[in-house]
Fold these 3 entries.
Entry 1:
Amino acid sequence: MCAFLTLLLLTLINFAASELIEDPEIICGRQNVKISMKMGQPFKGHVFVRGHYNDPRCHRNFTNQSDMMTPEMDIDFDHCTMRRKRQTNPKGMSMGSVVVVSYHQNFITRRDRAFEVECFYLEESKIVKSDMIVSHLPTTEMMVKPIMPDCNYVVRKENPDDKIASLGDLLIHEWSCHGPAQQLYCMQVHTCTVDDGENAMHQIIDSFGCSLEELVMSNVHYAGDLSASTKSYAFKLPDSSHLYFSCQVQITLKENHNGTCPRQSCDSRTRSKRSLRSDTTVFSSSVLVLDVEDTQKMAIHAHACPLNLTFLVSSLVVIIAQSATIVYLLSRRAAKF
């Protein structure tokens, strides 16, 4: 599942003014839903799931409390027979039931209110809303959309302070996602590309998350549900020293709340079956890679001046010696005549 969406449909009675001063607050969890209310005056009634009045796990009695201004109730998905429905368009699963707030000990009166509470776990980024009438009372629609995990991509050397790489240096690629309720999600890295910022992109990780160029980058390894890494050796594209990496990160909702994330093998390269997914593109900062001769350039320049001076001095000594020899020979020849 790619997104976690809580859809609340509230059913209101229009016959008389209610003692509720605002709409109830709904919190949908992994195994239950919690409903909290604020009253304008002390509440001495009942809050129960329709059809489960006699079940103490699905019914709360406040008739003996004299100062209850904020009644609350936790509804367990398993004990209170929450309606479960899996949809294909949009894909997802909904958990719903009707909660009745009654001010009378034995009867449903026109003062009472009924709320249809539905938690909908949606896979797509688009939100589709629909009215669902499951009682004789009109409904008011409310929606809550939680925040998806944020993901980032870092390429670094073994020493994080070293920002420049030479050809053949070991590079570490790290992907991680963080956010609320992150224990519900799985992550898979796939479709990675590299370019120099100007020319065409080159794909190095395929859509299954497997390396296409193992000499350039190895297969991705997962250290946790929302963290992964791999290693590569620094390389270059022709006529450029900068590399730009980008990858797709797939976020899925676990089938089981406390289950493990499925990891497919790159040997078979068969996509594992996923129910709900969302893909996000993450980019690394640019990587500067120097040629071998570039890394030696400073040393060569440092010795250039001393070598030229030595050569000049040697040349002058040779010229002086040759000149002295010529003068000596000329003087000997002149003496003979």
Entry 2:
Amino acid sequence: MRARGVLSLLCVGAMFAVALTQQTNRPKFWECPVDLFFVLDTSESVALRAKPPNFYIDQIKSFTERFIMELKEMRHPCDRSLTWNSGALHYSDEIILVRQLSDIATERQALISDIKGISYIGKGTHTDCAIKRGIAELLIGGSHYQENKYIVVVTDGHPLTGYKEPCGGLQEAANEARQHGVKVFSVAISPDQEDTRLSVIATDQNYRQNFTAADNSRSTQLQTIRSIIDMITNETKDVCCSFDCNAKGGPKGPGGDIGSKGETGRQGMPGEKGDIGVVVSIRSGHGSILLTQKTCSVINL
């Protein structure tokens, strides 16, 4: 009996903990979360651009770490705060999820630590597949504002046009992002990249510009980071400052009370004249009796 009581207390405690966690993870009204997902190219074409092979891989990691450090909560004029969720993957001809979307307010250092742990993969470059995986990561979690979802792709633009891309190609990946309302920034690893393909990746011409992740000048790298952040904060201002109530509907309520009896209806129209009933004549020694079905009457004859 005592064991059953302890088990009941444990169940109640577990339910309370789950409810508390859900309440804690739920965005506050004044928070306007923005999702930013990094898609990082660590393929062979990147690694072999310089010696040692990890030179540009380290540059990409450094750029991403610096970017994450710049993601700061910002208050809009409408008294709502822009907050950040961020995650990352890196890829070659395979995709490795570095970290799923996480709240930067509590998981910033964990995400940076995971970025530091990225190692060179090598082999082919399946950028189309990586972008589609990034889209999927944005759609399964993060901000409840569909307009506040962004991807930053850092790549050298390889392979060149004509190479068989297994997930439909860059154009298809960019179109899929547009269909889901996901905005994609295209960042070159260094200035001398395949700009045509980088422009295809970007879902808007403003999302390409002259963005560079690896440069001898630290100021150029920071300029890219701050330009992208400024664009995102300006674009999300209208979404964050609109107060349309689109809360989820609650459960179906209980049935209502039985209504009162309605008023008596109007008298109907007179019916048609009926048919003549069957006439039965009964004769006896005392005379005749006529029965009519219609009137149910007896007539002595």
Entry 3:
Amino acid sequence: NFPGGWRERDPMAGSAEFVEADNAEAIITRIETKSRKIESLLKQFKHVEALKTALEGSPPKTRDERCKSANWIVVHRAIMAIKDIDGMLNALDVEYYDILMKYLYRGLSTGDRPTCDQCLKIHEKLTERAGLGCILRCLTDTINVV
């Protein structure tokens, strides 16, 4: 960590780097744009496409909690719209599994009953599909915190 902001390589995302806090407004703007796209997809009943869109570029490469919270709201909206979990997992590329697992744990940490119920249902199916390694990668990755 360096005073006044820092940059650290993310081993899970190649050369991607964290951005300094003064770029938080630009990140929030991108999240708002993504949110509008997701709402449009959900209105068209394209739930899996909405989830993929929500997970793309997640987590935001910043430690700014406003950005993480804004992105969580977008991902949460997409997660809660999923009805056919098996169908969603069949359509979701495997590279999304680890980040989805991170957001499931974020959802469980809210304590909100409907959110926890949905996250547990998806967690069970995702663990069957992706294995315990997905859980371990999620819990041990302290760089890409959602």
